Amino acid sequence: MAINETEISTLGEFGLIDRITRDFKIQNDSTQVAVGDDCAVLNYGDKRTLVTTDLLLEGIHFDLTYVPLKHLGYKAAVVNFSDIYAMNGTPRQITVSLGISKRFTVEHIDELYAGIMLACKEYGVDLIGGDTSASVTGLLISITCIGEGEEGKIVYRSGATDTNLVCVSGDLGAAYMGLQLLEREREVGAGIPDFQPDFAGKEYLLERQLKPEARRDVIAELRSLGIQPTAMMDVSDGLSSELLHICKASNVGCRIYEDRIPIDYQTAIMAEELNMNLVTAAMNGGEDYELLFTVPLTDHEKVQQMKTARLIGRITKPELGACLVTRDDNELPLKAQGWNAFNKD
Amino acid sequence: MAINETEISTLGEFGLIDRITRDFKIQNDSTQVAVGDDCAVLNYGDKRTLVTTDLLLEGIHFDLTYVPLKHLGYKAAVVNFSDIYAMNGTPRQITVSLGISKRFTVEHIDELYAGIMLACKEYGVDLIGGDTSASVTGLLISITCIGEGEEGKIVYRSGATDTNLVCVSGDLGAAYMGLQLLEREREVGAGIPDFQPDFAGKEYLLERQLKPEARRDVIAELRSLGIQPTAMMDVSDGLSSELLHICKASNVGCRIYEDRIPIDYQTAIMAEELNMNLVTAAMNGGEDYELLFTVPLTDHEKVQQMKTARLIGRITKPELGACLVTRDDNELPLKAQGWNAFNKD
Q: Tell me, what's the ipTM?
């Protein structure tokens, strides 16, 4: 611990909670009472309430040797907002629970919360509660996000039908390549004092890995064009995995065209440097937090006007299965090769 | 791992989620969509939504050498319901996030969920989502509970006023004594093969520690007698700590009478065996999950009719402070000696 850092035990649990919550200002009318009682109190009137939760564990989901705590806090909040947008809703409140081992100081927790607060401010979300505890090893963050949606406007995974079009926002595979880059530089620099990692020309990959954004701009564009998606998900485990979820929940198949998969230039360069298959990385990399959605065929012209998303394929009858159509017109069945939390290796 | 146990990696994340959620049946009209999409969808109409969250970590909050997993699951759910009742609300939905290390098998997680399911059935609460991940060490459980309340009927910590009466349900200190008993028997039995712990005559203490209940019967009795508490909390950190929270939030003082503190016979016997101060244990033991509440002086006769709670003191002007009045009429200032998650020792 550096000389100007503070042990958490000097504040105690209530002191720590007070310190980390006092600067959050309430931003939503639906937040009637936030932190400070047994429960928060929300008022949703005649809206529908959306609830999602995410658990982030040190050593499993993040590595603090290359992830700054402020970025971690920002990302932990944003990935939850992304789930609310993926239902065509608006995130409004979060609870944040932390488990904190002895190697963390009050200043570390301040950094983490600075990121959470920045995300809350950016997206207009209120912190309404949480639980804070010592942990035996490492840091853990459990966030639950509550949002609102309108009856009839909420979009599920199960609404895709035969002849629908498949679209995805932004580009894919960059967050995964950012992770590969961070891990490579960590290995190169291991044991070298004052090692300076080389990230030149790869800033976009780092940004996608360390500071992802939730695509509320896509939701806004869909609304402004009068498009109501039939099914939607956010891409967290990888495009293939999410497509299979939609196909299963909607009982449909799909054809995704390799030459339509949106990939950034930096992602392509990095894949070449690492001798990795670019399309595999884009289809299975994960952590993109882009929005994958289906729309009726009649919205074809509207989706072609979209600036935030593009057409990548179509929904088929279920018996046709879910396939990637390669540039040379082969059909490869999609596989969920996304990150699996319980893989043995 | 025993021969008929299953490694979690054989199911994978989605297989595990499917296994642990498929037997939960939806019990509330407000649960529109539960597990299986990016978010759950709730419909609260014109009710108020209550939200609370609790984090339980192995090695900090529980010790699996003497806590069965089914009991742990039950308790993890019930302590959240208790927070909703403490606002005069009704728990309706929970999300459950788990971090699971490699030493746990599918059967272990089934046991844990059997306890969560029993609690959900008992209290009419729906499981609506969660997140499940591998963890580096040990088990962690993060539960968020959502409940409903009525505008004008929700009870905060901040509503107590001078001349109010202070009441508490059930009895205090038994859960703490149960923990002492379990720890004593663990120490006595350490290294002795087939050691049989001696719990005869102390079953109530074990039950209070291992299978606490949330006091919805107290809420029901308050309603049936037409009592609207002015402030309320559940006793999780210990009576002293909770009284100080109410006094601070309401800007009042209090006088609690030692001879009015409800203590079970088994608690008293155990305190004597362990040579512990009984009143200290009852005031600071924690994990009682009883309801502490204040009522207007005009409800004096009504609270005296209560079967589930009793009068233990009165609210005073703030300048009089918060004190315990001993049997010999001394006034001892209350101190929050409850369990502190960040204590150094």
A: 0.89
Mutate to test the interface with A, among B54, B56, B144 (most CBs of A within 10 A): B144
Could you say which DSSP state residue B311 is in? Answer: E
Q: Residue B57 and residue A133: Cβ atoms within 8 Å?
A: yes
Q: Average pLDDT of A3-8?
A: 76
Which residue range forms the structural domain that includes residue B178? 157-333
**pLDDT tens string B14-53:** 676 677 677 767 777 777 766 766 767 777 777 889 999 9
Q: Are residues A302 and A174 in the same domain?
A: yes
Q: A133 vs B61: CB contact, 8 Å cut-off?
A: yes
Distance, in angstroms, between B225 CA and closest chain A CA?
A: 24
Backbone angles phi, psi at A68, to 5 degrees: -65, 145
CB contact under 8 A, B84 and A38: yes
Query: In terms of CA atoms, which chain A residue is nearest residue B53?
Result: A130
To the nearest 10°, report the CA torsion of A303, A306, A309, A315: 0
Same domain, A134 and A235: no
Identify each DSSP E strand in chain A by its residue range: 31-33, 40-43, 48-57, 90-100, 126-134, 140-149, 165-169, 231-234, 253-257, 291-295, 309-316, 322-325, 331-333
The answer as to whether B320 is a domain residue is yes
Domain membership of residue B247 (yes or no) is yes
